[in-house]
Design goal:
Arc Repressor Mutant, subunit A; DNA-binding; 11 helices; 10 strands; homodimer; alpha+beta; three-stranded antiparallel sheet
DNA sequence: TCAAAAGTGTTATCCTTACACCCATGT
DNA sequence: ACATGGGTGTAAGGATAACACTTTTGA
């Protein structure tokens, strides 16, 4: 807990001491590259071909090297291009974590401590085809409980809820503080909308971390991870098939952030091709936000809100009447504050 | 632009190479500690007592040392406690930057490259008194153009707008691409609400960076900074009196983030004492969001929204009739999504 | 007494939800 | 013909912005 000696010495003027006195650390960069292909929300992963287990992979990532790249973002783009061939559009920082490795955690140990800066990078469907090193997977392969496109997912009612309920419950107060149980109950209520609370699609990370603690997802714990989790909680089937290690946390944060920002910024259009029909736009929003929430009002909101403008062209072969094609009206950026796809849940 | 050799070699499996191969970097932490005292929004700065110039200072900051602290946040709390004596409540990451020093930029050079993780930390008014090493200053001392509490600030109309308008204008096309000018015009429109665009109180950082580029704020440039700014743009009086160096950018981001989150999360209550009157709450919101926007409807929204509950007590000596005291109803966290102080501008 | 703030009540307006219905295409 | 998606209109309901007015204190 004590600071290194040289800091204490030079403490009085209270200014930060020169940075070169500090302990050197490796800084990592990693990217959750998200896209929507068809009606499926996808993420780009780099397969771990060396490994046997099918399904293993990692987000594109690499170390930040100030000698090579002036900015964090430049470094990120470099590694993404190198590992996946994808040229990123806009990116945004999601969070910065300590010790955020991929699925290889155990082997890499953490002797060289790492700080990872995590990015969200939406790309268009055209970018979303397997190429070079990249493989695209559905988000919902990693987080099936987040998929509300066809109503409440079954894995929630059938597996997660009962197990979490039990994991929380006061039945296990043995040597545990009641405060702990209370915290769990509260966290469960907030994250998984128990007792009349509303499901908040943005709380992706909170849900993932709860499931991780409860042992319902994550790496099989061959070496008991401290014994804090009772044996019985190891019984339920693991839900999260493909493995991402700590990168799953990053993906969860990125999805949460995307869901958040879709509502108040025009990010969806970074996921759309240049021209699109309103139906396609709606499907994309639904793929991201989960619940299939709206109806024809969606069209009115989007068009009336000045977010898009018709190109004059039409798309045929839509399965019905030909649809007008639209493009994003980038002028909204100049006109309106918070031009997102504001939406309240409806009943289809 | 080429990656270090060992990366190219181990490229094919496309997995991230072990982190210890990476270049070691110093990781810094710094905190924009924000509070509202009376009607004034304040930030904690650490004065640079060594220096002559009155007004110099820096945000509390220090290097992250994984040997000392397991998490970034623990390190942050340590340095803040050390330098200011303040015990932080909740904190949130705002951004991570490369080379973010305080006002000492020039001397520290950047030979040991630094990545800084920047935090926003709201604290209650009780914490907001000068103690130990901390000094509290109004935000608006640094960013007077952000202060819309008494209507549009004069420095905007009288100084900033004319100079920026000129700085943008096509008058200076000499050896400059028109695209550059267009970008400037657009950025000006967005950031400073030119031509019918609405003032967006959240774009604090965009405004600061524009002013910085235009030479209206920032350190006096004794050593021409590359000659990209014409001499005439050096004439306008500097607006930003106290100096923070790169930390000003951090402060701007933090203010923007706070303004953003006040509207959709119950962060204001982290800035309030345990009990308060609705008027005090309103004043606090106004101190942050700038425009004095609402009216008695504010009370209805806040109370009706279930954000607060009366304690039963009253406060006398309010300047008028005694006011009911309220406390934050922390249950909203369980009930509602996005429980912020949603507000639209009004006319007083 | 007045100024300042605390409160209460009411109305007009807008926004959005929800429903109903017609249009055009491909199978 | 019909299923599917495209597209228009409108009525009911809720939220809130705006206004008017009363109450209670301190100076």
């Amino acid at each position: 807990m004590d600071p290194p000696a040289h800091y204490v010495e030079s403490m009085l003027p209270a200014r930060v001491p020169p940075a070169r006195a500090a302990e050197p650390i490796s800084v990592g960069l990693n990217a959750a590259i998200l896209a929507v292909r068809g009606d499926e929300p996808m993420v780009a992963v780099v397969p771990a071909s060396r490994r046997e287990r099918e399904g293993d992979g990692a987000l594109p990532c690499g170390p930040f090297s100030p000698r090579q790249h002036k900015t964090l973002e430049a470094g990120l783009r470099f590694w993404v291009r190198q590992q996946t061939g994808i040229e990123l559009g806009h990116t945004r920082q999601v969070c910065t974590l300590v010790d955020c490795h991929g699925p290889d955690d155990r082997e890499m140990a953490s002797d060289p401590p790492v700080v990872s800066v995590c990015y969200l990078a939406p790309v268009r469907p055209a970018q979303c085809n397997d190429q070079d090193g990249a493989v695209w997977r559905s988000w919902y392969a990693y987080f099936p409980w987040e998929d509300w496109r066809r109503g409440k997912p079954r894995c929630l009612t059938e597996i997660i809820e009962p197990h979490l309920e039990a994991w929380t419950g006061p039945a296990h107060c043995e040597a545990r503080v009641p405060r702990e149980a209370l915290n769990r109950t509260q966290r469960l209520r907030i994250a998984f909308a128990r007792d009349a609370a509303a499901w908040d699609e943005e709380k992706v990370l909170e849900r993932y971390e709860l499931l991780l603690e409860a042992g319902l997802v994550g790496e099989p714990a061959e070496n008991g991870d401290g014994g804090h989790v009772l044996a019985e909680w190891r019984q339920p089937p693991r839900l999260c098939h493909p493995l991402l290690g700590d990168h799953a946390r990053v993906l969860a944060s990125a999805i949460g952030e995307l869901r958040r920002s879709v509502k108040c910024e025009p990010v969806i259009f970074e996921l759309m091709p240049d021209v699109f029909t309103l139906f396609e736009l709606q499907k994309t929003v639904e793929a991201i936000l989960g619940p299939h929430l709206h109806k024809q009002n969606f069209r009115r909101l989007v068009e009336g809100g000045g977010l898009v403008e018709p190109t004059g062209e039409h798309r045929f072969r839509t399965g019905g009447r030909p649809a007008r094609l639209y493009r994003f009206r980038s002028d909204v950026l100049l006109e309106r504050l918070a031009p997102g796809v504001r939406i309240k849940a409806g009943r289809g």
